[in-house]
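Whether sequence alone determines local backbone shape is best considered at the level of individual chains. When preparing material for the folding task, we compiled for one chain both its residues and its backbone structure tokens. No coordinates are needed to read the tokens, only the vocabulary itself. For completeness, the protein is quoted in full, as a sequence line and a line of structure tokens:
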Amino acid sequence: MSVSETLSDQIYEYVKNNIAAGAYENGQLPTEAELAKQFYVSRITTKSAMKRLADEGIIVRIRGKGSFVNDRSVLPLLPVKSAAAREVSATIALVMGGYTSAFGLDILNGAIQEAQRQHTHLIVCTTNNAQSQETEIISSLMASGVQGIIIQPVHGETYSKHLIQAIYSGFPIVMLDRRMQGIDAPFVGVDNRELSRFAVEKLIEQGHQKIALLALPDERSSTISERMDGFKDACVDHHILVNKELWLVDLNAMFDQPPELLDQTEIYEKYVQRIEEHLRRHPEITAVFGTEYLVSKAAWEALRRTGKSVPGDVSLVSFDMDSSYVGSHTMSYIKQPQYDMGKQSVELLMQMIRHEQPEENICILDGEWIDGGTIAPVKKER
């Protein structure tokens, strides 16, 4: 052992014993320069001793402020993680179409918490469900040196070439919520088909057979098509005719330009108008199943404009709901485990980055049925 190492050990023991004895007022330690002067040693020696104390979590070193005892009772306003815990293991990105209280914010919260637990930096991006933005974001992220990406793919007629190239080059990518048909990549989401079947069965159990299905087009990703399949499964299981004349699945066809370029208030109003027209053409409809909250909310407003009440005249079921909304649009719905989706996505991605073998590449989480009081028995014809 060299002389400098011996002196470093001695300073380490000296400071450690003083901490145990409560010798440092307000938890603040002498600086490296002060210790060097006290023991007639170089700054390199005192720095080594202080680094060892920090690595063991005994002290906290804060740039520009000094070193402190790692004890919240004397250091309530300063971080108390050890230096080892503060080391960043990776930088990853979460890319989604958007983050709303109906869908996205809870996923973000789960991802943030897990990233912090894994000492990982998380970059958050929004595509606004536009493929041009998705392509630009993926290119920018990969060029910036991120080690992995969690992405909710934009649905459309084609896939992003950058995304496909990244997946097949072995770059760590986890699909979230939406799977791209024909693309083999790790995925975190729910069984949309089974949950949809369960929700529609809730309507069928109350005698409903004239059920409208409302959906936005989703040509290439699996989410909405799986929910539509679940609708059909429920009807077939209960020997009910699947009447697609009651379906409204082309809500975006009315726009002259991509919806992502329009004002959200304008989009919502057009949805309401289109659904209202559909309901007036089909007065026989006794129940509505919305494949996502926005169309379900628009359906409720459209029903109000036609003079029908929920659930007195028409029952209503949704996939997801705005959990922050308190009012007349509290409805019966399928609740996705969004927090766990975000958490599991980060966990799976970090396993890929560390070249660990994940237990499962496909993580299907359980949803939950929430009875919001918008289902009633079908009215019998007089």
Notes: The CA atoms of residues 93 and 141 lie 8 Å apart. The longest helix spans residues 3-20. DSSP finds twelve helices and 13 strands in the chain.
